[in-house]
Write a structure and sequence with these properties.
Blueprint lengths: L1 H41 L2 E2 L1 H4 L3 E2 L2 E6 L2 E4 L22 H7 L2 H6 L6 E5 L12 H12 L2 H4 L3 H23 L3 H23 L7 H13 L4 H10 L12 H6 L18 H10 L1 H14 L13 H26 L1 H27 L17 H7 L3 E2 L4 H6 L6 H6 L8 H14 L6 E2 L2 H12 L1
Parallel strand pairs: 1-5, 6-7
Antiparallel strand pairs: 2-3, 3-4, 4-5
Helix pairs in contact: 5-19, 7-8, 7-14, 8-9, 8-15, 14-15, 15-20
Length: about 450
């Protein structure tokens, strides 16, 4: 009887103890909640008009998921190098999510740099869905971090293409004929799709200096890597096929109408005929149009970046250098009247060999388009899949000729992966898309993709 009484007493004591522990836990969470509310009430709010002013190396603010960070002291030690400056004064959420591994994005940006939040923040996209987190987790397990920006195949391609570039340049300037011209134009397009594209995405290698050099090969072609990183990485990848935000729509209109939301002029019904002429001059337009890009700013926070005076004048010198090697030096040896027709052929081959690979990735009947009226509930990862199309997946020839642009969906989901690694993750992406009910569209050939592009133009 005494033992039973003692057991009952112990049970009552244990229940009392558990109840007290539960009460303490509830009190602790109430305390944390009150502290969070107190902290939230003290959080400083900033308007976009204020945020966009802080876009310089010595005064750099960025926004990630509505939180404002002063990363001025972090920029010099940023593992991604100066890439962060291309989003200075703007919304870097998509870049943060797509360029960093899950263990970092789940933890979030370092709170030590947070200075407040955006007033009335309204995200362009939804980040709540499970698709992007799932596909990212599976890909990261399949491909170790040290291999994502490292490939001996890519290094070999780079060495061969750069060697051919300098050989073709020499032949073009000193042995000007139709064959040297065609050779030079084709090699220049290969520098663009196989080297500079990976370099300017920070995907060429884990070494920041070598990756910067790879991106700077665009400057050999007369354009500028500074503008490309800002307009392409932020103005296209961050908001792919978004009518109001994607910079690609602005650069072609009104000459070409690539969106049904754009006003249609009478001559657009003929654009599928004159497209060959336009695409033959793409790089000429890029050559001088980038001056407009340097001065161009937008109210949309995903598209802003600081450009110094030194960068501007370097840009000018690059144009002079390009003009010298493509026109002035050959004209000295052969005369400008003889050089100009060949120069035109070079520009056409270069432009066509470069532009068509980009055109068929998003400007097709099968690629989706969005605008501000239907974007807020769209998951960012799903958007990359549905607004992009692949072509000739599995083809060794087209993968190497296009610099992996035939794996456009994989590239948009994982822009920090070098293009020679994209075939390794393609099946994972396809399976995950099927699991989540997303359409993964692949044209069986490049020519089928071109045909669809033509349908869009009509």
């Amino acid at each position: 009887m005494c033992i039973r009484d003692r057991e009952n007493t112990d049970d009552k004591s244990q229940k009392v103890s558990q109840k007290q522990d539960q009460q303490h836990i509830e009190e602790y969470f109430d305390y944390l909640k009150s502290k969070n509310l107190e902290k939230k009430s003290k959080t400083k709010l900033y308007s976009w008009a204020e945020i966009v002013k802080h876009d310089r190396p010595d005064d750099c603010w960025i926004v990630i998921h509505g939180k404002v960070y002063d990363v001025t002291k972090f920029v010099p030690i940023h593992p991604g190098g100066s890439l962060i400056m291309d989003g200075a004064g703007g919304d870097c959420t998509s870049m943060f999510e797509s360029y960093h591994p899950l263990y970092i994005t789940k933890k979030g940006a370092s709170e030590q740099y947070q200075i407040g939040e955006v007033r009335d923040y309204s995200p362009f996209y939804s980040w709540d869905g499970q698709f992007y987190q799932t596909v990212k987790s599976r890909v990261e397990k399949a491909l170790p971090m040290n291999k994502r920006r490292y490939s001996n195949v890519l290094f070999a391609k780079c060495a061969i293409i750069l060697t051919l570039y300098f050989i073709s340049l020499y032949l073009y300037m000193t042995k000007l004929n139709i064959w040297s011209t065609l050779f030079y134009g084709l090699v220049c397009s290969q520098v663009g799709v196989n080297i500079m594209h990976d370099g300017n995405h920070g995907a060429f290698t884990n070494n920041k200096v070598i990756t910067w050099i790879a991106g700077a090969t665009l400057d050999l072609l007369g354009s500028t890597s500074v503008v490309y990183k800002r307009s392409h990485n932020f103005g296209h990848h961050g908001c792919v096929n978004h009518f109001e935000l994607d910079r690609s729509f602005d650069t072609t209109y009104p000459t070409l109408r690539m969106s049904k939301l754009q006003k249609r002029y009478f001559y657009h019904k003929y654009q599928h005929f004159y497209i060959w002429i336009i695409y033959s001059f793409v790089n000429l337009a890029d050559l001088f149009g980038t001056f407009d890009e340097l001065a161009w700013m937008s109210n949309y926070p995903t598209r802003r970046g600081y450009v110094s005076k030194s960068v501007f004048w370097t840009h000018v010198m690059i144009k002079i250098m390009w003009l010298s090697q493509s026109m002035l030096v050959p004209s000295y040896f052969f005369g400008w009247y003889y050089v100009f027709p060949y120069w035109f052929v070079y520009m056409s081959v270069f432009s066509l060999g470069y532009s068509w690979f980009f055109a068929v990735n998003h400007w097709t009947d099968e690629a989706g388009q969005v605008d501000n009226s239907n974007i807020s509930k769209t998951n960012w990862g799903a958007l990359q899949v549905e607004n992009s199309t692949n072509f000739a997946v599995g083809s060794f020839f087209w993968t190497n000729l296009s610099g992996g642009l035939n794996y456009q969906i994989e590239h948009h989901l994982f822009p920090a992966f070098c293009h020679t690694r994209l075939p390794e993750i393609s099946q994972i992406v396809q399976d995950t898309c099927k699991e989540f009910g997303l359409r993964y569209f692949n044209f069986p050939s490049f020519f089928k993709a071109v045909k669809s592009h033509y349908k869009l133009l009509k």
